[in-house]
Specification:
Elements (H helix, E strand, L loop, with lengths): L17 H8 L12 H28 L1
């Protein structure tokens, strides 16, 4: 049986990281929206994921310094 894809309506798979899950949940806003509106959502998701990764990098660097 195939895994659910973007068009299955199943939504994004939970990652277990609240910041990542919140960013991916924004992709659900694209369902039924005109293509022109997708760019703003993609930019928002990209920014959220970038901030989450930066925070994780900062946390890891801080732990390595201890």
């Amino acid at each position: 049986m195939a895994e659910p894809g973007p068009s299955s309506g199943a939504g994004p798979t939970a990652t277990g990281h609240p910041g990542v899950d919140a960013a991916l949940a924004r992709l659900e806003a694209l369902d039924g929206v005109e293509t022109e509106a997708h760019v703003a959502v993609y930019e928002d998701v990209h920014q959220r994921l970038t901030q989450t990764l930066a925070a994780l990098d900062h946390e890891q660097s801080r732990q390595e310094q201890q």
